[in-house]
Design brief:
Elements: H1 4-33, H2 48-61, H3 67-93, E1 95-96, H4 113-124, H5 126-138, H6 144-184, E2 187-192, E3 195-200, H7 212-220, E4 225-226, H8 229-238, H9 256-268, E5 273-276
Parallel strand pairs: 2-5
Antiparallel strand pairs: 1-4, 2-3
Length: about 280
């Protein structure tokens, strides 16, 4: 028979650490970019990967309580979890949600040394944090913690279904737009001063408009890269004014070398190539 008290404590511990991870990510965005961004795949104030990591650390604590071992194995297993999550989400949604390629000692851009050190530190502190979590849960009177755990689980399930629907719809839109681009849309280079911005010129009726949920997800994952890259760049370019500071790097002018490559590619593919000097149109 299932011990409801034990199950409720596990669920509440998961959500507390998920909420803590959400606060941690928000603090990073606020400190680094002076902008508060909901850094999560879901709409609610939680980052489940932190909750999953906490559950993993608790399992490790049953095996060892030595700080150095907790640090090493916690960081190692958390990186394995993050790597698998990145790979799974890329296969499922045809997109890379985060990319550590520019970070030192990364593995395929999915995990990096910084993540290992961060998760290792959290793991080594888990015995102390767990005492605080248990104290918080103990403050909930009677059997209300079972009710609270059930409510949170229902909300999370609804959120997960809805968020997956939004991303799946966005992926289908990108796929459709990519096919249109490959079929008959010209390549256009727009000049602004001495620098150039490569852009795919689309008519207003052909471009897919992002809803607020899709914009929130893109703001939450600043290094998001879709397999349908041309469609993604064209669509997000239309929304750059409503993107967060995280997204500014998407619209930086390209180099002369990249410009030459774009011209050569357009010529090879037999696409129309046009130039518009000092144009403000995107």
């Amino acid at each position: 028979m299932i011990d409801l008290d034990f199950a409720a404590n596990i669920i509440l511990t998961f959500f507390i650490f998920s909420f803590g991870g959400w606060l941690f990510e928000g603090a990073i965005s606020l400190f680094r970019d002076h902008e508060l961004v909901n850094r999560g795949f879901f709409n609610g104030p939680y980052c489940p990967i932190y909750g999953e990591g906490a559950m993993l650390f608790l399992l490790i604590m049953h095996w060892t309580d030595r700080p150095l071992e907790l640090f090493f194995f916690g960081g190692l297993f958390a990186c394995v979890l993050e790597y698998f999550t990145s790979w799974f989400m890329e296969k499922l949604y045809k997109a890379r949600w985060w990319d550590y390629s520019n970070w030192p000692l990364n593995i395929n851009g999915r995990v990096c040394l910084y993540g290992f050190l961060t998760f290792g530190l959290f793991s080594s502190l888990m015995p102390f944090m767990k005492k605080g979590i248990d104290w918080l849960i103990a403050l909930i009177p009677g059997n209300h913690h079972i009710t609270l755990a059930l409510i949170l689980l229902i909300i999370f399930t609804i959120d997960a279904i809805y968020s997956n629907h939004i991303v799946a719809k966005f992926t289908r839109s990108l796929q459709k737009t990519q096919k249109q681009l490959a079929a008959n849309f010209p390549l256009k280079v727009i000049y602004k001063g001495k620098r150039a911005i490569l852009n795919l010129k689309l008519g207003d009726k052909q471009i897919t408009l992002l809803n607020w949920q899709q914009r929130r997800l893109l703001n939450a994952f600043p290094t998001f890269k879709s397999n349908y890259d041309k469609a993604f760049n064209a669509i997000t370019n239309r929304h750059k004014a409503r993107m967060s500071n995280f997204q500014k790097n998407r619209f930086k002018p390209i180099s002369e070398t990249e410009l030459k490559r774009a011209k050569a590619k357009a010529k090879r593919e037999g696409k129309k190539y046009t130039e518009a000097r000092k144009s403000n149109k995107y």
